[in-house]
Design a protein that fits this description.
The chain is built from 6 helices and 5 strands. A 5-stranded antiparallel β-sheet has the order 2-1-5-4-3. With about 170 residues, the chain is of the alpha+beta class.
Length: about 170
């Protein structure tokens, strides 16, 4: 479902005790969303179930960030990140996300669970300029080379800091 939502400058703030939970199948199709996910996304449960999880993707988020997420969780590892999401009305909300693969008894990935909580405001202030640089690199490179360009910006930053992506996230 392609949507034409105009992003707004209205930010919705997660409450300290909120947990946004969603589950997807291995292809990223939403199979479950808790009431807080429904509230913040602005979509009804019927609109969310069966939709791609990127229904809440904000255009300020670089594609390379999501490629890193997918590469990590498809490898059977957990993933942590600060993410800017967009609601149905165009407003946005920042989350600190933790995505884990769900396994069957043979250790095959059968889906993913994402739990998002209220992010630290100082961490958002630090990650936002990084995402902006990644997005600028992606836009300059064009669609075919966008992800590689955004990834290059992130890798340069990690090399400068001498840390892994996960170390960076937890240092914010």
């Amino acid at each position: 479902m392609k949507r034409q939502i105009q992003p707004s400058t209205v930010e919705r703030m997660m409450r300290e005790d909120d947990f946004i939970v969603s589950k997807t199948n291995p292809k990223g199709i939403i199979t479950y969303g808790n009431p807080i996910f429904i509230e913040f996304s602005g979509y009804s449960e019927e609109e969310l179930l069966g939709s791609q999880h990127n229904i809440v993707r904000h255009p300020d988020m670089p594609r390379a960030a999501f490629q890193l997420a997918w590469d990590t969780i498809r490898a059977g590892k957990e993933f942590f990140a600060y993410v800017k999401n967009m609601a149905k009305d165009g407003s946005y909300y920042w989350v600190f996300t933790h995505i884990t693969p769900d396994f069957d008894q043979q250790r095959n990935i059968i889906g993913y669970t994402s739990v998002r909580r209220c992010p630290k405001r100082d961490a958002v202030a630090k990650v936002e300029p990084v995402y902006r640089l990644m997005l600028q690199a992606e836009q300059s490179a064009g669609p075919r080379d966008a992800i590689a360009a955004g990834t290059g910006v992130l890798l340069d930053l990690l090399n400068q800091k001498g840390m892994s992506y996960e170390e960076l996230v937890f240092s914010l």
